[in-house]
Amino acid sequence: MNNVLAPVLIAILLIISGCSNNGSSNAQTGVYPGKAIEGVSGVAWALESDFNGELSGPLVTEATTYFSDDQTLYAVDTKTGEQKWTHQTNGGILKPVLVEGIVSYIDKTGIHALRAQSGELVWERERNKDTMIAMSVGSLNHILFHEILEDGRTTFKALNIETGKESWSFGERVLSTPIVVGDKLYIPSMDQVHVLNEKSGKEIDIIEMKMQALSIAVRDNLMIAEYNDFNRSIHAFDLKSHDHKWEYVLEEIEGMGPRANMILLDDKVLLTYVRSGEVVMLDGKTGKELWKKVLGTPWFAHIYGGTFNDPIVAEDTLYISVWEGQNEQRKAYAGYSTLFALDVNTGNEQWRYQEDDFINYSPSLIDNGMVIVTNNGIKAYKGGSNVEKSDPAPSNED
């Protein structure tokens, strides 16, 4: 990469990576359709050795869990942890994507697609030396990704999942990861959100906004956008009429407002601010604040980039892992992670489970269990009556 291209790409990659909810549809929306687990009764399996570097975020299905270290993509049985296949990569990768039985991933050489069952290579798309490929999501028929050109233009492209051939491309200043909802794509670009047909790439609608959206979330007839303003304000739009419905601004902001992760539920909007530790639930129709909590230790945001990982939701339960405690050797660092289960309607704690290692990404729910990635490897929890491993740790509430 030449010296002119490098700083431009770094700035753009930071914007894009901050907006990504990469992976399956559950991971992208943050909402899982299965049953909530009532606690962690133990560990079903754990793989905690012989990895080269940190692990990527996992792509988890009921049958198979996919993850990688700096050299290898692994496929293991989700129920047992038994290895199904491995595939050598060219350095570390972003979280893999699964579409129609094909697992794809991005590394420093380009995009690669494998058969999900066997790991057999299906196709590859090499990266041009004057471009950068950043982030990908899966849709009904395509692998979707950003291609960043030498002059800083960012184009959004769709590759046919079976052949790897380009189906269509869109835009020159696409800095945010799109939201995939059925056969539609919602792509923020400057002060507009473009709605495309996923199969053809044809633009079918444009939603005008007063400012660039850093990220968006879509469910049913509601779109939530986080503006790139001083307050990082949250705005709700009706997708049919395009009417602006409400605005929410997090109170007591010192300096530039923190970035929000947004999850849309049936009638609510969940906002989580990883750097400040705030968890906020809003009424989806009015934007009224229903409840707010502060989790974790603010100091840890300077070390880990946040006080907790992005949450997930199943039924009426919110799951979120928080860095807590104190490292005995490095006093300014956390000592462990705690997995909290909160009631979606009230914010009240249902249970907690102390993980003696650190949980590095959002957890992934499976049938009567949960898969997590830690500093030392990857493991699956067994759902059931919760094992109380620690005394309740303090958290601040409004």
What is this structure's SSE topology?
Elements: H1 5-17, H2 25-29, E1 31-32, E2 40-47, E3 59-60, E4 64-68, E5 72-77, E6 83-88, E7 97-99, E8 102-107, E9 110-115, E10 121-126, E11 132-138, E12 142-148, E13 154-160, E14 166-170, E15 179-181, E16 184-189, E17 192-197, E18 203-208, E19 213-219, E20 222-227, E21 234-238, E22 244-248, E23 261-264, E24 268-273, E25 278-283, E26 289-294, H3 300-304, E27 312-314, E28 317-324, E29 336-343, E30 349-355, E31 364-366, E32 369-373, E33 378-383, E34 396-397
Parallel strand pairs: 1-27
Antiparallel strand pairs: 2-33, 3-4, 4-5, 5-6, 7-8, 8-9, 9-10, 11-12, 12-13, 13-14, 15-16, 16-17, 17-18, 19-20, 20-21, 21-22, 23-24, 24-25, 25-26, 26-34, 27-28, 28-29, 29-30, 31-32, 32-33
Descriptors:
46% strand; 398 residues; mainly beta; five-stranded mixed sheet; single chain; 3 helices; 34 strands; disordered C terminus
